[in-house]
Amino acid sequence: MQKCKNMLFVAKKPMFISSNKFLNQLKKKYGIRKMGFSGTLDPFASGNIIIASGQYTKLFRFLQKSPKVYLACLMLGAYSPTLDIEKIEKIENVNEFDLETIKKTLKSFLGKQFQLPPIYSAKKINGQRAYKLSSQVPSSESQVLNKKFLDKKIKIEIYDIELINYSHPFITFKASVSEGTYIRSLGFDIAKKLGVNGSLTYLERISEGKFKYECEKKLNPIEYINLPKNKYLKDTKNLILGKKLDIKDFEFQENGKYYVTYDKFLTIIEIIDKKVQYILNRIEICL
Fold it and tell me: What residues act catalytically?
């Protein structure tokens, strides 16, 4: 019998390696070709990255990955088009701020807001990653590229932000944010509100929802699925065979997406106007 290759775990990406290159290392480590990750980390960033293999790679969109918690260190007076230490172009001496001003500035970013993505990011522009386009133009022209393609703010939310330490010119803070939030942009905006340039010197993702690094411990995906559970009341062989399903055979019949478990399998369905359709079927649960 073939060994089940479905795995879900949290790995810890080190600094100065791309998420894709790190994934390739994990593929070799576990001897699995079909493996993916959720939530790209910048090469300069470290920390939590959710890894799935086999059939589990289809589950990413159904996992509870929010809020995302980051630890970051911001250097005041440092200018970088990447908003981090990878392309520092200028460092200026800036006057020290009092502690209350720093705390008040951080707290001013709490709540829902709009954020401009960094020029150097994984955001796609006409099918190409923004950081690839940015690397092809001189830094003097990068702002033109930004205005032309990336001048569209995205809606984000800062759930919590906490000052960890302030040793001038470095501000270390922890932030709990919604998916899609760029911490490099947050750091830049914090410095801008203080009236100076600023770039991150350190960035670590600590957690994503309930996902935390535990030495690549194998996780049960059912515990992390962000969908309500439903129950199929008839013979589960109908699910195994992928037969047409009747809404009357389910415990809950309201419109929506649900997960259903049976034997060692997981199925995700959607109920729309009293009709049932499969989204995913026969995902083997490997523990």
Answer: 42
